[in-house]
Amino acid sequence: SQQGEEDPQALSIQEGENATMNCSYKTSINNLQWYRQNSGRGLVHLILIRSNEREKHSGRLRVTLDTSKKSSSLLITASRAADTASYFCATDYYGNNRLAFGKGNQVVVIP
Amino acid sequence: NAGVMQNPRHLVRRRGQEARLRCSPMKGHSHVYWYRQLPEEGLKFMVYLQKENIIDESGMPKERFSAEFPKEGPSILRIQQVVRGDSAAYFCASSPGTRTDTQYFGPGTRLTVL
User: Fold this and answer.
1) Pairing mode, strands A31-37 and A43-50
2) Distance between CA atoms of B68 and B71, rounded to whole angstroms?
3) What residues in chain A have their Cβ under 8 A from chain B's Cβ atoms?
4) Are A10 and A105 in contact (CB under 8 A)?
5) How many CB pairs below 8 Å do chains A and B form together?
6) pLDDT, one tens digit for every residue, chain A (111 residues)
7) What are phi and psi for residue A49, nearest 5 degrees?
8) Which position among A21, A89, B30, B39 has the lowest Cβ density within 10 Å, counted as fewest Cβ atoms?
């Protein structure tokens, strides 16, 4: 199956709530990245976490990485309507700059 | 500093025609990647190029698809004799060098084959 599988697939929350989504992968990696894609637009890089890191923060984003479980989570705190988008995790497990993407999480933040 | 540019943003072709998608990487970036996204799917790697070199084309279909990144000008993804199954969003990304992890994506070209 596909490297990088986000769970849950779709999430609908009220503005101000936190949103958490997960990603699992199957082989060893150098790093894992999270991207955001607004409807019909390109991907925006959010955060990169390396295999020797366990947690990373960027503004309202918090990413964790558990290499023993081969999983990562993305937490968006105090969500805003503008956070409505699809969120993808991507791994470089090929080790040669080829990114393998999951199918994405759709997040809808209701004002 | 302009980001990754792709054109056209939307492209409509009839079956059997050729599609040419262009990508201009960010200034100072010499590595270009092409990905394809089918509806409701994540991105799938197609090809990785440096100037005048194809580094990895393992994700490219064996027939009808080709890519280049000439010394001067944008990278081109070319699809010959398009079929309906080629309808997708095609994204280009760039990075400064091999050891740089982050890839910066363009807005994509949405190809529709009638």
Assistant:
1) antiparallel
2) 10
3) 2, 4, 30-31, 33, 35, 40-45, 48, 88, 90, 92, 96-104
4) yes
5) 64
6) 234 555 557 889 999 999 999 999 888 888 899 999 988 788 999 999 999 999 999 999 999 999 999 999 999 999 999 999 999 999 886 666 788 888 888 999 999
7) -125, 130
8) B39
